[in-house]
Amino acid sequence: MNRPLHIWIIFAVCAVVLLGAVTWVTATALRLERAQAEARQQAQFEEKVRLALWRMDSLLAPLVVQESSWPYFAYNSFYPAERAYNRMFNRLEQGDVLIPSPLLTQHSTNVLLHFQLSPDGAFTSPEVPEIQPTWGKGAGVSPEIISTRRAHLAQLQTFLTPAHLLAACPPATQRSSDASWITQTPALTNSIAFVTNAFAANQAVQQPQAQAQQAAQLLQNNVELQARANTYQQAFDNYGGNQAKAASTRNSVSEGAMKPIWFGDALVLARRVSVGGRDYIQGCWLDWPNLQRALLENAQDLLPGARLEAVRSAPEDQQARLLAALPVKLAPGATSQLSSAALSPLMLALAAAWACMLLAAVAVGVLLYGAVSLSERRGAFVSAVTHELRTPLTTFRMYSEMLANGMVRDEAKQKLYLATLCSEANRLSHLVENVLAYARLERGSARARVERISLGHLIERILPRLQERAEQSEMKLVVDAGENAFGTVIHVDAAAVEQILFNLVDNACKYAATGATEKVIHLEALPDGRFAMLRVRDHGQGISAQGAKRLFKPFSKSAQEAAHSAPGIGLGLALCRRLSRSVGGDLRLVTNGTRGACFELRLPLSTHGDAAALSSI
Predict the structure, then answer these.
(1) Which of 548, 533, 544 lies closest to 497, judged by CA?
(2) Superfamily designation of domain 364-604
(3) pLDDT digits (tens, 9 = 90+) for 402-414
(4) How confident is the model at residue 557 (pLDDT cuts 50, 70, 90)?
């Protein structure tokens, strides 16, 4: 396992750890945000429920308080005006002035019928008089209305029994509003006990937040219920409870609490009244369907899907939303689902954090890749340069020692050795020149000397050097160009073009000298639209497809490859492409259907308006 693989493994492990940590933080943040959103939504929902309960109890309060405040004698169709409070239930006497009960002349849309159960078990109603007075028509009490009320009274007797009424109504020892049914049921006591235990357990063992929120919600619901009950009690006392109590006390009349009672689907308000030691049951039969419709319409804007359910016994549901006036609970319906379409600020922040993290990871990966690639290229460069320098230095050392020690006395051999030393010196000079030129291009410190020159003058200037290099490899350089091509004016750095062409001819000499069908190197010049083209073509073995992929990569030749191929470090073609692009042209490998390699150099044409040279590469 090599070193770069270690580096990439460490980078991958760090990236996975970072990705896992950011994913966990993101999931936790989104979960907490959703929990907070659900808590806010639930709080808003509970606020709507509380407001709806207040509206319903406010709507019921006048009705129930009014029914609770009727004096006991109002449950007779007529009563004597002079002795309503002292001898109400005595036999009527000659000369008594009878007054019709307000329950007879007044009718509420939410009350079907008022009734009274006598000690002898007889059901009567102040709205169904035994006689039809002459004033009845003028007061709006028609025979049809009385007939309807008589039918209601008969229907009432089918589900109301004296035993059930007496058992359901508390003794007439204390007068209060019917809201006392709330404090007498175990629902409130159980709920408060549950809340206290939940809070204690949460402090002791740090139970989940959901249970603490549930306990807090229960406490708030019960506090709201008690507050509505107290408000209702205060309204009852202020409306007429104290006056009725005072009147009853003066005349030894005791009126019990008006209590709401469910008999099947019928809801009645009933109380026990003690007059002269005899107990009566008085109350009214409420029109629950009409009353229910009015209550729900009053809260329609808050809870569209709400419904009201009867509470016939102590509620076991500790989160029941109870009304203070009647044994009814509010079923508010389901809460609306959270909308996931809008992006919250937290989501935007997390998205930005993820984008920054990914960009940072990509940047680190790119930098790491660049650093590893640079390290590998440097290693390959050092290895290739070391191998490339070792051979000429060995030749220099051996030949110079032989010549210095006089071991070569033959003059011809001396000239051969000196020519070899010159050739190796040129080779080293060319290698160093390429390396320095590439280093200048990498640093951006190379300065271009751009000039306007024709292709003919350019080729004529560099041709001797190219021919000399070809002759060293026993090859021939042939220039193929027409008069039009030679007259093409280009705008380039002539020194850079000379170095490019020399590298191309040098490569042709090194790789095509052996195995070539013809030991000829063609230098072709031809115009091509906006560019002038120079082609260097040989008749060697050519370049494979695999070798063409890394042909223009710097230091692409390793020391092992250099040992089994022509001398070089794989820098020449990379340098040539960089130089060609620096002067506005390009260098590429082309195939023309013939054997060998063909490189095409494109150079920019000169225009009449060109007067300034390129300042830098």
Answers:
(1) 533
(2) Histidine kinase-like ATPase, C-terminal domain (3.30.565.10)
(3) 888 888 778 888 8
(4) low
